[in-house]
Every structure is written in C-alpha cells, then in structure tokens.
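WARN retry 2 of 3 for item q-0093 after timeout on previous attempt; input resubmitted unchanged.
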Amino acid sequence: PAAATGGEATTAHARLSDAASIGGWKLVAVPSAAEALGAALVRKYPFKESDAGGEGKRLLVLDVGHTGTCAAILKIDPPPAKKPAGDDAAPPAYTERCTVLAEATDGALGCVDFDATLFAYFAEQIESKHGEAVVGGTRRGLRLATAIERVRKLLSTMPEASATAENLIDGIDVPIKLSRDELAELLAPLIGKVRALLDGILSSMQAAEPLDGVEAVGGGMRMPLLQTALIEALAASPIGAPIAADKVGLKLDDASLAVGAAMIGKQAVSGAAGPGAGTP
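OK item q-0093 returned
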C-alpha cells in the first residue's frame, strides 16, 4: 500500500499500478494521505470507555513532512459498545471508524522546500564573501545542506542558532547563523502557502459543527512558524476558533502515514480488520 495525496491521487495511482505490473506485485490499496492518517489516528485516539457507541470527534490533522503537506478534517468514531453475549459479529475496521470530511494537499511543500530556500540564501552569502559557488548535489552542497538543516531544527527550540559547514571552501570551515525573525522573513512565502491550505480546508467546512481538536504531525510541525500559522488559521475560522487556544495534539508520529497505509493494505489483503480493530 502507499498513500497518495489529493490532487495527485490519480497520477500516483497510475504510476503505482504501472510499477506493480512491471514488478509482478498485486496492488491492493492506494489510500489518500488523509485516509492513512485517519487509520493511524483511530487506533491511537484516547477514547474513554464511556465514549463507546457515542458521537465521533471532528479533528483537523496537519502533516508537514519532508516533501509534502496534507491538511485533513476527519471524523473519528469511538469504539462500539460492548457486544451482547453470543454476538460474534466482527468489530468495525479502522477505516470504518474514520470519515474524511475534507482534505487538501500540496505534494511540493515540505521541509525540503524550506531547506532549499535557506540553501539559496546562504549560498549567495558564501559566494559573495569567498568568491566560490556552492551548488546543490555536490560535496560542498551536501555539507552546506547538512549545516542548514541543523540550524533550522535548532531554531525550533531557541531564538537564534548557528552551525558550521566543515571544509566547505578549500579547507575552510564556514559558520552560518540565523535568527527566528530572519527565518520567518525567508520562509514567509512558503508559510503563506501552508496558511492558504489551512484557510481553504477550514472555509470549506464553514457550515459544519466546531472542531473537537487538532493534531500535528511531521517534522515541519516542530517549527514555531508553522505552529503559529496553524493557531492563527484556527482562530480565523468559525469551526476552529473554539479550540484555537487549546494545546495541539501530538498523538501521531512521523511514521503514522506509512503505518496507516500499511494497516489499510493489510485490511484489504485479509478482507477483515487487523489486530485490535474496533479499539483505540
């Protein structure tokens, strides 16, 4: 199984079908990113025993990964009430307890794009100072990219960060330094795209009931810039405003997309729910 993003789902499905045919594999499922995240979230959502058989929860999930971003509004149903003695009916599968109410994706908006913007900024500075170009895909480029990624991650926990691109220019170690304010200015266009994605999906559900919670997943969501964009988008939306001040949930980890897709694939292969289906 593999997760496909919304607008690219048809193309991704066709490519996977071709690859499966060439490789002699049986393609059993091509869930969307939202469906895969939903399957993982159903399994991990902490419903109480008293919630069994009750109303579901409406959740916004924002996944900013290495290469792409997915925003989805999901309805997660609690596990069913306990069955009476003698009832051998199988519990509902994970996918049967999750409904994708809305989904918006951008397969070219992720951490790699943030780092590419920073790479261009620092490469220009280095060429201006040292007279040497640093090009991506080269040894120099790899050393600079490694230092940039470190700085970006450090800025998740501190207002200013620095790192050293070792042996970058003829044996010279080149230090790079960046503040959160500078990061915000450089990444403003990309953060704006994430905000537009969120505004679009939230506005599409204006007539719906308020959200019950929000979940963040993916390495990009460790960036305070993106956390702020998420909170501001919620505050500006009728269905998100009631939870804008709540703490963002972190029930999913960076592997949740792959795990959810695998769960859906296993269900498709077996024709039945996987282990633990029907339980949080």
